[in-house]
Design goal:
Elements: H1 2-21, H2 23-48, H3 53-90, H4 93-97, H5 103-133, H6 141-168, H7 174-187, H8 195-203, H9 205-218, H10 223-227, H11 230-260
């Protein structure tokens, strides 16, 4: 347990140092996400036209909550692939797999420390989004629980993509494609899409969670009511399934990569 704590502390300290040292890059990242929100938000506002003030408030609240969920999901999807790819390019990946700690444990510490840093980065973004949209977001226990379960599923999905990165090194625009899809789901529900597309989207870990998260933000409910709902049960099973599949696939990919000698070369 002490080794795990030291590992997590070291990873968090490393990430915090990078955050301070490259403050301009961090500010540019936050500004980029903000400008994406502004562009999509006002585009939808112009399409919607004149609507009731209460409906406009609910729409804006749903958009802000969905975009914040997309922000964290986007960070998760890019972090694992970038971490593995950088390790291969720098020649350090094979050393990490030879370390005393299992690589998935090292990866877990890296992901948790990155998440804590992303929480710090999202604070200015949150105030910019709420000020632009003219809404006030209350962090309810039910909303936070849904968000954490949603994120667990996204982590499992990202670990699965990480296994592909171990095998193929370059996965092209595959993570970006899912980021674009998650962005769309963050702003809309795709209710008007075909039944086939809705069925495929509903399987993704982000789709179920963000729909439940937006409905809870617009219409706050007690945490007991949310936990007892069928939607939350489906979300939990979906997240658990992605974690199990992601970990098993990554472990298999690690074994194949070691057998083929893929860890030490690009």
């Amino acid at each position: 347990m002490k080794r795990i704590a030291c590992l997590l502390t070291a990873e968090f300290s490393h990430r915090l140092t990078l955050l301070r040292r490259y403050a301009l890059g961090t500010a540019a990242d936050v500004l980029t996400f903000y400008l994406v929100f502004v562009g999509v938000h006002f585009s939808i506002r112009s399409i919607v036209g004149e609507v009731d003030a209460a409906d406009l408030q609910r729409l804006a609240t749903s958009q802000v909550v969905g975009f914040l969920a997309f922000y964290f999901a986007s960070m998760v999807l890019s972090s694992i692939g970038n971490y593995l790819r950088e390790g291969v390019e720098e020649g350090t990946l094979e050393q990490l797999f030879l370390a005393p700690h299992p690589f998935l444990l090292v990866l877990g510490a890296r992901l948790l420390s990155t998440f804590l840093i992303d929480v710090l980065r999202v604070i200015p973004l949150f105030f910019l989004l709420t000020a632009t949209a003219g809404v006030r977001i209350a962090f309810t226990p039910a909303g936070l629980l849904i968000f954490l379960v949603l994120l667990v599923g996204v982590y499992g999905f990202a670990v699965l993509l990480g296994g592909l990165t171990l095998l193929f090194k370059r996965t092209g625009q595959l993570p970006f494609l899912f980021q674009v899809l998650f962005l769309g789901l963050g702003f809309s529900s795709f209710d008007g899409a075909s039944s086939t597309f809705r069925a495929i989207a509903s399987v993704l870990p982000f789709a179920r969670g963000v729909a439940l998260l937006k409905s809870t933000a617009v219409d706050p409910r007690p945490i007991g009511s949310v936990v007892a709902s069928a939607g939350f049960l489906e979300l939990g099973l979906n997240a658990l399934g992605y974690v199990l599949i992601g970990v098993l696939f990554f472990a298999w990919s690690e074994r194949v990569a070691k057998d083929r000698g893929l860890l030490g070369r690009y």
